[in-house]
Amino acid sequence: MQKTEDTSLVLAPRLKKISEWGKANLSGDKIEIMERHIQFLRETGAIDSILKKGDTAPTFSLKNQRGEIISSTELLKKGNLVVSFYRGSWCPYCVEEVKILNSVYPQIQEAGADLVVISPQSFSRTEKQAAEIHLQYNMLVDEDNKIGKEFGLVYEMPDYLKDLYFNTFSNNIQEINEGSAWELPIPARFVIGTNGKIIDAQADPDYRQRPEPIDTVNYLKSLND
Fold first, then answer.
1. How many CB atoms are located within 10 Å of the residue 206 CB?
2. How far apart are CA 100 and CA 90, in angstroms?
3. Do residues 3 and 214 touch, judged by C-beta distance below 8 A?
4. In terms of Cα–Cα distance, which of 34, 20, 14, 11 is closest to 171?
5. Around 28, how many Cα atoms within 13 Å sit in the side-chain half-sphere?
6. Count of beta carbons in the 10 Å neighbourhood of residue 170
7. Helix (H, G, I), strand (E, B), or coil: what is residue 114?
8. Which secondary-structure segment (H or E) carries 178?
9. Above 50 in pLDDT, residue 131?
């Protein structure tokens, strides 16, 4: 009998629903601004600076939602590590990704790996987000995008995008992150092997596109075959 896929673990339909809401509720000029910036990131080669398969992953020790310091070096002593970068709890696409990663986390553990998600948002926002969804894994605070920059993910928002986020969405990114600049990471997911090398890397300047969590699970399982 063919195994039926659990659709509750599929991210794409959730992201599509958010995108369709935006198209229906935002004016054409606001949509154009967001599309223009995504295209700008593509054309300026922002993705070229992102670490790739075969590169050595930066090590990090960051505070989690409980105020504990989590070390990537220590986690890698136990198995492979999935590192997923997201923008923050203000981003609906990120919220859905974090939720589904939470649902598949037991499968990640069964595959002998662990997972951390990293964002530049403040500790108080991280603590609140993790509590609201009963997060099972470590949600880490990357102050001033320090680790995101080491992975090659971070860009500074141009003025036209700052104005849109602040005036339309009431999101002051610098304040949300308690940071020194209006900066965000390109959403990305890496799998790091126990030797510290990146064995899988996926990133897209279009924040509406994210790798499927269940695909990450299946990749981890394949490493054990």
1. 15
2. 17
3. no
4. 34
5. 0
6. 8
7. strand
8. none
9. yes
User: Which residues make Cβ contacts (< 8 Å) with residue 116, sequence separation at least 6?
Assistant: 64, 70, 72, 75, 81, 82, 83, 84, 137, 138, 139, 140
pLDDT at 2 over 80: no
Q: Hey, what amino acid is at 211?
A: P
Instruction: Write out the E strands in the chain.
Output: 61-63, 69-71, 81-85, 114-119, 138-141, 154-156, 183-185, 188-192, 198-203
pTM tops 0.85, yes or no? yes
SS3 48: helix
Distance CA 131, CA 124 (A): 11
**The one-letter amino acid at 203:** A
Confidence band of 44 (pLDDT split at 50, 70, 90): confident
Cα distance between residue 12 and residue 211, in whole Å: 9
Q: Which two tokens stand for residue 207?
A: 């924040």
At 56, give phi and psi (nearest 5°): -80, 130
Contacts of 53 (CB under 8 A, 6+ apart): 198, 199, 200, 201
Q: How far apart are CA 88 and CA 140, in angstroms?
A: 11
Cα separation of 155 and 175, whole Å? 16
Nearest to 97 by CA among 22, 1, 163, 14: 14
